Amino acid sequence: MTKLILILVAEIFLLTAVASAEDGFARTMNKKLIDLPNHETLTHLRLYWHDSTRGQNPSTVRIQQPVSNSSLFGSISMMDDALTTDVMKNSTVVGQAQGIYAGAAQGEIGLLMVMNFAFKTGKYNGSTITILGRNVVMEKAREMPVVGGSGMFRFARGYVEARTKFLDLKSGVAIVEYNCYVLHY
To answer: What is the residue range of the signal peptide feature (predicted)?
Structure first.
């Protein structure tokens, strides 16, 4: 009987060792090893996104045409839009919104937004927040998640609320207010 118990205990240890070896790619870490503080900070940023699809120096270019002329569905555009501190284009530029938006809805102007807000001045210089979500352009307020970040926004999460301040489809100019609520270390 004792021999049987010893064999069972040995098998359990062996199975535990094998299972641990299979998960050898992951481990729990101490936050202090990568200089993470013990508490998170909630930061609110109000930025103005300036998008221009036409003219001499557009900030957005279409890289894939829509599947039909009656909709934006299937279109893909690459952006490098100024982020400013005020609605006016000549206000202080604090960074760039860089990424892609794509027509993802057939019955409305619904975009898939994939972009980084890359900060180029002040306290957040060199840091980014990453936004990924659905933007139904004609709705008054749209919410999209913040899914990550870098620099000061390492391990970021949160959301942004977008509100169109100016839209002229003929000239291809849009100004959107982004209120960003970001939890980060």
So the answer is: 1-21
* 164 compared with 10, residue with greater pLDDT: 164
Q: Which residues of 82-112 are buried (b: 16+ CB within 10 A; e: fewer)?
A: bbbeeeeeeeeebbbbbbbbbbbbeeebbbb
What is the pTM assigned to this prediction?
0.81
60 forms beta bridges with: 79
Which token pair is 81?
């839009």
CA separation for the pair 162, 117 (Å, rounded): 13
- DSSP for the chain reads -HHHHHHHHHHHHHHHHHHHHHTTT-----GGGGT--SS-EEEEEEEEEEEE-SSSS-SEEEEE--SSTT--TT-EEEEEEEEESSSSTTS-EEEEEEEEEEE--SSS-EEEEEEEEEE-SGGGTT-EEEEEEEEETTSS-EEEEEEEEEGGGTT-EEEEEEEEEEEETTTTEEEEEEEEEEEE-
pLDDT tens-digit readout, 44-56: 999 999 999 998 8
* CA dist., res. 180 & res. 46, Å (int): 6
